[in-house]
Amino acid sequence: MAPAAAIVIPVDKNWEFKQLDKDGAEFLPVSQFPTNVHLDLIHHKLIPDPFIGKNELDVQWVGEAQWVYKTTFKGQPVPQGAKAILAFDGLDTFATVVLNGTTILETDNMFTPERVEVTKLLKDENELVISFDSAYLRGWKLVEKYPEHKWGVWNGDNSRLAVRKAQYHWGWDWGPALLTCGPWRPINLEIYETRLADLSFDSTIPEDLTSADIKATAEVEGSGGKVKFDLSLDGKEVASQTADANGAGNVTVSFHLDNPSLWFPFRYGKQPLYTLKATLLSGDDEISNITKKIGLRRAELVQQPLLDQPGTSFFFRVNNIPIYCGGSDWIPADNFIPRITAQKYHDWISLVRDGNQFMVRIWGGGIYEEQAFYDACDELGVLVWQDFMFGCGNYPAWPELRKSIDREARENIKLLRHHPSIVIWAGNNEDYQYQESAGLTYDFENKDAESWLQTDFPARYIYEKILSDACAELIPGTFYHPGSPWGAGRDTHDATVGDIHQWNVWHGTQEKWQDFDKLSGRFVSEFGMQAFPDVKTIDAYLPLGKDDPDRYPQSSTVDFHNKADGHERRIALYLVENMRYAPDPLEQFVYATQLMQAECLASAYRLWKRQWKGPGREYNAGALVWQINDCWPVTSWSIVDFYLRPKHAFYTVKREMAPVSAGITRKVHKHPRDKYTRVYIDTETKIEVWGSNLTLEDLTVDVVVKAWDVITGEQTFEKKIAEGLVLPENRSTEVAALDVPVKEKGKGEENKVVAAAYIVDKDGKQIARYVNWPEPLKYVHLQKPKELKAVLNADATAVEISAEVPVKGVALECEDDAVRFEDNLVDIVPGEVVSIAVKGATKETKISTRYLGMI
Questions:
Q1: Per-residue pLDDT tens for 524-577?
Q2: Angle formed by the axes of helices 648-656 and 586-609, to 10°?
Q3: Of 86, 129, 273, 577, whose CB neighbour count within 10 A is largest?
Q4: Helices and strands, number each (H, E), in the chain
């Protein structure tokens, strides 16, 4: 008799919860499922919203209490020879699971899915009870159990290192401490005699890209049958094979495709996704199936000697195309993960793509993200750098923990390995930097893995043995990087190898952002600058909104919504170094911090992308800004706030990562006339002009430089500095260096000259523009324009901006969140009209402006 078809029944109804360690507590219905305890308590108004005001402080007790969830569900007949399985996709974190009075599972890892056979326990009516202990208190008990370990962290406290749970739940320098628990991912009842447990594939694409060899593997659990593999594209069959499943185990078939449709990062090609389906058959009966969307691409991380600089390159090449990976770092989009919808993930990744960001790095203190996140990246052509979930500390490695981590790694690799967007896995975030800072033992030349466990840095065994082995076995075609930052076992600050985190702007030595060209690396996977969020976001977290007495920049509530140590001093430092600003009104101060962040990050992208010089000269191959997003409403390094409202830096980064961009920097050269003189020094200020062409075609262009007097608005210079210049594909090219255009040298007029570079194509169309100002901006005598115009066009699809004097950082603002600007924070010079596309506007939409120097 043929096995019955496998069935999967969600266990997602009738859930209730209560506090376990509180006498008299009664069960209440959950707010949703999957869920966590904070969401349910908020739903029943048993705790205030932790994101409002200082409510975070009032809910800390939740993370130190015990909680219980229960439900009832109907059983299903289990055919002879079949079995029933309860599958838990994610339990957060220390859970005891009881079915019909029998303990069936105890967990201690939030990230690892669990499967338990319950055939003999299943009844017509079933009660499932899950008790959750405090991860915080259990963590401290484990710390006490292993006093010989050299505990230490940046952010949170030592207890988090002992617990396999999202580390940001302990609080970070951008997020609150909210220690959740609960069934945070789906629970299903499965009944089957045999089933497909997994479907994976390996693909090989030769350098000429003309074919693809695919090896598809289905894992069969239970008795045999046949497995049919189907490969289709856009609903049309491409290939099909059927193979015998002789008992449990793996069934593998091979496909050869000529001229496959390849998956590319956006802008460089399309994102075709094949459908790979495996079906377990018994005769003609379908027993079980798995379907996955896959992309075929040739992806490499290239580390090779450079032509005329020390060290090696570090760049990603996809389908033979070197990619300059401008992008950003990603943290979980909410402290309460179960309420993040698939649509919200898609909205976030759409923003990443709309911002011309080719890569997003999933940071190691959060979670292995939901499938919807990676699905969006696959669909939209955004590359993913995937960290394993370790960050900013010295992790222990006792035997049971090593086993748990090995399972965690393998299960999550299996869940994610089909996504074409993932091009690298990294072992941790900044744990090697912590090792250096704390002086922990690390000898790169020692390759005896067992001996690493005897040192005060046993986590090396995790990163260079457990995770490395799991990746080598399960995803041999995807590059594994032991950590971020990391470079061949050298000091993690070595800018000539691997990736670096460049925090000497904001943290560290607090360098000027104008010097980012001196702070480069082969690949900068973190750097950043803080800015306040949108004023509407601040009003949303103030208990009384616009009427709140704490509605000013230095209030205790606003300070509470910035978790970075020393943020007051650092924001003030970079503001006072660069611009005149006022703390009142709040709107203008928010604008000043966003202008500061926008100028800083644009400077980094512009100066580092200048070092993307073509084959053999990939001196900098990527810049990932910390960070794209927030997990709550907060002042942080994000360039888009919690409510998906872009800060102004989002737009300046978008412009710098456009297909073609122009760059100018000013360099002051001093030439003493005598060896020891302090008086007789000749000074000249040069502007250096370059163009960046990230397209795959050589462009023939003209380059024009113009200049204006910042005070009068008079145009003082215009010259075509290059005519018929070829900007070669996919690199930056130096154009010219010339004196700052002034009427009379030696009079200090350089500090009142605004210069702009324009790249014009062979048809006379402007394809890039950059306006360069004297710095610091605080020294510039900015004028208030009498005729600053920002006018919606006739069909309300664009705003046209102009002024009679140079205006720095014109920002368009609208109260209606449905109105979205395609660009913002633009510099205006006389004689030009800058047009910014807008969506969601009508002829009645009111748009206002803000600019530097208006107050």
A1: 999 999 999 999 999 999 999 999 999 999 999 999 999 999 999 999 999 999
A2: 20
A3: 86
A4: 15, 42
What amino acid positions are annotated as catalytic residues? 430
Nearest to 613 by CA among 736, 734, 731, 735: 731
Rg from Cα positions in the chain: 29
pLDDT per residue as tens digits for the range 238-275: 999 999 987 768 999 999 999 999 999 999 999 999 99
Within a 10 A sphere around the Cβ of 208, how many other Cβ atoms?
Answer: 7
Q: Is the model's pLDDT at 214 over the cut of 70?
A: yes
Report the alpha-carbon distance of residue 350 to residue 343 in Å, rounded: 10
Distance in angstroms (rounded) separating the CA atoms of residues 100 and 388? 36
Laid out side by side, the sheet with 820-821 consists of: 789-792, 798-802, 834-839, 820-821
Q: Is residue 336 over pLDDT 90?
A: yes
Say how far apart CA 403 and CA 107 lie, in whole Å.
Answer: 13
Name the pairing type of β-strands 422-426 and 383-387. Answer: parallel
CA-closest candidate to residue 115, choices 188, 218, 198, 199:
188
Tell me which amino acid residue 358 is.
F
**Residue where the block lists tokens 């598809």:** 216
642 residue type, one letter: F
Q: How many CB atoms lie within 10 A of CB 781?
A: 10
SS3 of 191, please?
strand
Using alpha carbons, list the distances in angstroms from residue 548 to 48, 536, 540, 545, 795. 17, 13, 11, 5, 38
CA angle 15–109–118, rounded 5-degree value: 55
Edge-first strand listing for the sheet containing 848-850: 826-828, 807-813, 848-850
Helix, strand, or coil here: 707? Answer: strand
Residue of 178, 62, 32 lying closest to 632 (CA atoms): 178
Burial bucket for residue 577 (CB in 10 Å: 0-12, 13-18, 19+): middle
Phi, psi angle pair for 159, to nearest 5°: -60, -25
End-to-end Cα distance, the chain: 83
Where are any strands of DSSP class E within 21-101? 28-29, 67-74, 83-88, 95-99
Angle CA 568–573–576, to nearest 5: 115
Burial of 675: CB neighbours in 10 Å, binned 0-12, 13-18, 19+: exposed
Tokens encoding 485 = 């930052």
Closest CA to 395 of 175, 146, 181, 179: 146
Contacts of 796 (CB under 8 A, 6+ apart): 838, 841, 842, 843, 845
Between CA 282 and CA 724 the distance in angstroms is 69
Q: What angle do CA 807, 809, 813 make, to 5 degrees?
A: 115
Which amino acid is present at 310? P
Per DSSP, 58 falls in state H
pLDDT digits (tens, 9 = 90+) for 41-52: 999 999 999 999
User: What is the rounded distance in angstroms from the CA atom of residue 367 to the CA atom of residue 746?
Assistant: 58
Distance of CA 258 to the CA centre of its chain: 35
Q: What angle do CA 596, 599, 604 make, to 5 degrees?
A: 125
- Give the SS3 label for residue 378: helix
Q: Which amino acid is at 69?
A: Y
Q: What is the pLDDT of residues 735-751, one digit of tens each?
A: 999 998 887 776 677 78
Q: Per-residue b/e over 57-78, b at no fewer than 16 CB within 10 Å?
A: eebeebbebebbbbbebebeeb
Q: What letter represents residue 496's amino acid?
A: T
pLDDT at 584: 86
Q: Residue 45, exposed/middle/buried by CB under 10 A (0-12, 13-18, 19+)?
A: exposed
Q: Strands 622-625 and 325-330, how do they pair?
A: parallel
State the pTM of this model.
Answer: 0.96
